[in-house]
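Form 7-S
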Amino acid sequence: LISKINGLNTGNDTSLYDALYTAVTRTAARSGAKCVMAFTDGMDNNSSCSSQDVIDLAKRYQVPIFIIGLGTSNYSEIRQIASETGGLHPWRIFTRRSTERKRNSIW
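Output:
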């Protein structure tokens, strides 16, 4: 599985905001506690919707978005998404152990 994931090629098109919008929509339709966790490098260059669309939808359905940043990208746009939706700003992770610690702190 890991080698298949590592072998994926996105063609440099990233639709982060579309993915977050879809995740919030699906999460809002479920019962119980709700949140969206995104593992991302923070880049978006192919979405149909904007970061503000994501924020508005998440606020409407009260779904906080937690961002876990991968690598060293600039996270200013997704930091705004997290803070305005009640989630937490991007944590940067570099190892599997740090991933587990961040995930556990959200739960």
